[in-house]
Structure formats: C-alpha cells, structure tokens
Amino acid sequence: MPEKTLSATEAKQKFLEFVRTADRSYTRYIITHRGKGEAVLMSLDEYEGWLETLEIAANPKWREDLRKAEKESKKGKRLSFEQVTGRKQKGIKK
User: Fold this and answer.
1) Is the pTM above the cut of 0.70?
2) Are 40 and 31 spatial neighbours (Cβ–Cβ below 8 Å)?
3) Along the 94 residues of the chain, how does pLDDT read in single tens digits?
4) Is 51 inside a domain boundary?
5) Same domain, residue pair 11 and 38
6) Three-state DSSP string of the chain
C-alpha cells in the first residue's frame, strides 16, 4: 500500500483530497509537524483491519497456538494447503 509523508500544513490545505485518496487507494499519509511524524491518515477499512489484528494477537490462546505452530514448523511438521482446506491449490505443479 502506498505511503506518503506530508506536513500538517499541506494536510490541512488538501485534507478532503487526502481523505478520498486514502479511502479509494488505501494510501497511508504520515503527517508531520515541525519535521516529526505526529499522525497517520488511513482508510477506515484498513484501520478496522489493524484493530482486528491487534485484538486477535492480544488473545493468549492465539499466541500460544502460534508458538506451538512455529515449533512444529521448525521440526518439519507442516500441513499442505490441501490438508488444511480440503482442496488442491491452483497453479502449483508437483
């Protein structure tokens, strides 16, 4: 996703344009004040996705499951796409 940095002054002057662009193209705008990043403007869909991800990652069971999966993966214990989904992966030749 595109990311652009702009000053607070520029953001103020073209705010509606940046809001529309963020929504349509998922462009993130880092807004600076006196040369330092202070805020981010992003689409609502992307923001909600971040919140959902944070909520999932905060779940202790999910973190434990992830640690277990990482250990199993290092030992070579992995499931194929077909084993997980019950269907063959498109475009992959064996």
Assistant:
1) no
2) yes
3) 789 999 999 999 999 999 999 999 999 999 999 999 999 999 999 999 999 999 998 999 988 988 998 998 889 888 888 887 888 878 766 5
4) yes
5) yes
6) CCEEEEEHHHHHHCHHHHHHHHHHHCCEEEEEECCEEEEEECCHHHHHHHHHHHHHHCCHHHHHHHHHHHHHHHCCCCCCHHHHHCCCCCCCCC
The CATH number given to whatever domain includes residue 26 is 3.40.1620.10
Give the domain range for residue 11. Answer: 3-42
Q: What sign does the dihedral 76-54-56-26 (CA atoms) show?
A: negative
